[in-house]
Amino acid sequence: MTTAIQPGKRASTRETILDHAYARARHDGLEGLSIGTLATDVGMSKSGVFAHFGSREDLQMAVLDTGRRRFMDRVLLPALKQPRGLPRLRAIVANWFEWSREHQSGCVLLSAASEYDGRDGALHDGVVQQQAGWRGELQKAVDQAVQEGHLGTHTDAAQLAFEIYALMLGLHHDGGLFGFDEASRRTMAAFERLWRSWQS
Fold first, then answer.
1. Among the residues of the chain, which ranges form H helices?
2. Coil, strand or helix at 38
3. What proportion of the chain, given as a percentage, has pLDDT over 70?
4. Residue 4 burial by CB count (10 A; 0-12/13-18/19+): exposed, middle or buried?
5. Cβ distance 112 to 127 under 8 Å?
6. Which residues of 6-38 are buried (b: 16+ CB within 10 A; e: fewer)?
């Protein structure tokens, strides 16, 4: 008689696999994930890993979603405790700075955008969905800042969301090459000019 795996134990095992896969993907990208290597990392057989993820692509998609959830938990959710408008938008950016500092050695979400931007398929679509969702959250925060009178009524929410994202990409890029403190100082100065440009 075969003993069924308890749902709680199965979920715990899945999370353990995802933790290891996420750590690997931070350094090797989603394309660097291997079922065999991951099975060795967690002390399981390849078939054991496949029991939780039916394919390598399923695993990659799950790791991408893990990155999305962790990013939102660290960057967006704490900022929602701040008052609507520019205070909340500034909090989002400040939390994003900390995420960038902690992920200088590799960010799954940014590496995925580079890996799949010129491809077709489910992973490309998943990356686009994740990035578009985050851009939408930024636009929502910008719209609220306009409603609160913190930004001018002429503010183009999509444009400002793009500019915020572009500055953060610059921080990720320069932080790794030239040192995070210097890159952070310059990016903060750029953000102060950015806020002012949309307030007048």
1. 7-28, 35-42, 46-50, 56-71, 77-79, 86-102, 108-116, 122-147, 157-178, 180-199
2. helix
3. 96
4. exposed
5. yes
6. eeeeeeebeeebbebbbebbbeebbeebbbeeb
Q: Which stretch of 7-11, 67-71, 136-140, 144-148 has the lowest confidence by average pLDDT?
A: 7-11
Instruction: Provide the residue ranges of all domains of the chain, joining segments of one domain with +.
Output: 57-199
Rg (CA), the chain: 20
Q: Which residue has the tokens 């099975």?
A: 39
- pLDDT tens digits for 182-197? 999 999 999 999 999 9
- Count CB atoms within 10 A of the CB of residue 175: 20
Q: What are phi and psi of 87, to 5 degrees?
A: -55, -40
Mean pLDDT of 100-112: 91
Whole-prediction pTM value?
0.89
106's tokens: 């590799």
> Do the beta carbons of residue 98 and residue 74 sit within 8 Å?
yes
Band (23; pLDDT cuts 50, 70, 90) = very high
Q: What is the pLDDT of residue 29?
A: 93
Amino acid found at 37: T
**What fold is seen in the domain 57-199?**
Tetracycline Repressor; domain 2 (1.10.357)
The closest of 57, 62, 45 to 11, measured between CA atoms, is: 62
